[in-house]
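Bug: token stream looks shifted between consecutive jobs. Job 1:
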Amino acid sequence: MRFTLMTSLALLLALLLVPGCTNNTNLTGPEPQQEVTLLADMSLAFVMASDSLDLTPEQREKLEAALKQFRQDVEAAMRAHKSGEMTREELRARVSDLESRLDAEIRAILTPEQYERWKNRQHQIKNHGGVPYPLVLPLEQLARHLELTPEQITQARVLVHNAQLALRHAVETIHEREKLKEAIESIFKRTGAQFQSLLDREQLAKYNDLKRRHAQPKLPYPLPSPLDQLARLLSLTPDQLEKARAIVRGAEVAIRQAVETQTDKKELRTTVGNILKRAESAFRSILTPEQERLYEQWKQRGKGSG
């Protein structure tokens, strides 16, 4: 069987989320179940975020390999626990170690901007019961922004609960990438329409404005780290700092213009990549030889730590 990114995720989710799939009564206790659920959340985050990460073929191949190995290692640990070779504490430690190792591999494979998107998605899913949240913002925030009435809040809670049940069912039962994606999008669309039907005209206008602002893409930073951090790291002079700020501002303008004018994702990715390369090259050009040596060492340490 050829393991694709989605196949690996689906198998892992089947192993970790579907009740009874391990046939191991020892795993029904709260402690190990909590650990494997955390890993299931991380896998679902990949399902939700993979399309938005703009992966290169090489990145996708590396991620597939890492996820396949991760799945095999988790299966081996759970078999060892089932056979009595591993205690609950040892299983929890092993799962935690595998999670940390996978996260380090992911960080090394993705760009900093891709990794940030992945971590944000993982955080969002873990905060909402292991499934993606079906509204543009958590209900508590929407209630404040839109000044929902108690009755509206009660009705919206029912919508969110039902949507989360439907999302979990989809994740547990649909193993084909495109079908799962379609199912999730359908649940999102249906829940959004039901929520909007609860709002009056003024609330609806505010909600649509929130959606527009929420949908705006976060543009990548032109340098590998914020300029204030680089300034401290490299002891930039005031003149260098001013030049670096001009480089960053120019790159940000160019990136925003590209995002607003280019519709082809592949072309946009190439354009933004070239802008980032030019910005870093321009930044390097203002450094002294010693600063450039420190800068390169810092970058290599970052790659090594994953």
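Job 2, same session, no restart:
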Amino acid sequence: MMPLFLLLTSGLVQLAPAIAMETDQLTCRKAERTDATAILNQLVGRQLEFARRQTQSEVDTSWSDAKIGDRFRQRVRERFKGLKRTLNATLMIERWMENTLAPLGYATMPRYRGRHLHLYDRYPRHLRAGEGLVSAAVFSYTDTFLGYTSANSFSVGGVLIGSDKIGHFIDQGYDYWLKSDHGRDEAAAIRFGTGTELGSFGLATTGVFSYGDLAANHAGYVFFKNLVGDERALYSIYRTYSGRVRILGSRSFDWADYVTPDWDELQNLSHYTNEVSQMVREHLIGFSCRICHEYAQWRGSLPVTPRLLPKESYVDAGLAAGMTPTDLFRLDELCSPAPARCAQEDVQTDYSCEGGPSLAGRSSD
């Protein structure tokens, strides 16, 4: 019988959906996965078309182009999030990625002793210490209740990103659009976003201040800003001689136009609290045999100096003061020379790289 604490906690989890996710672009980095760009482009394209048709049916000839554009952006956001805001920060596209795409080979997440494993997990060290599955379940439930879940990594636009970045792009991107006074005050939007990463979408719940999240937020803002309007826009508004208003597509949506290496948290390092830093250190040391074995295969594919955007272009420097990126991924130091204790069986049994829904995929509105 499940202990009373777990019964109570699991009930609370259902009442308090997760509000933040973290992702791991190190473990299983070069595992085989199908690039998700094309299928995600198709999904977004269909949702944009639904939103366009809905907006087209609602507009009145007396509406200004600005009002039509705002309504279109609102309908786009609703296609991915739903009509009502909830405590749950995951969008339906994220859950679809986790529940449908991941098991089909579009993503991999390491598994250890039948459980999902990633860079920030607490329970592997308890399992290795012989404390059993009950301790693992306690940590799993409490982390979920506190707003902490893990996201699978997908290849999108040639960049390895967590499914959470898609949610940041769409949901926070739209919030940026609103907070910027419809594109008039970008600095206000960036200030707002930096604050959310310090709060419930990052540091306050997971102990991670993610510059990758903020880069995805800002890219989403650019998407919504340029969704409809001038020659750079995806859609344009036309008025016929008879007075009818038409919203017509100018070009197709492509994630490759928005995703940059800044979304990859192994290239664009995050700031960790001391507790999370300790978890990451334990993960790197505890699974060093497999990590170093993989690193030898992909070390040449990661640029020595990543070509990243200036942080001031998407981060409020004042609010982010003190959020220095935590550089724990000194893999050359960890792996040279190779850990002496490693044998082939250690490399094979440390963890396995498999696709499948993470905790994020089991969230609900």
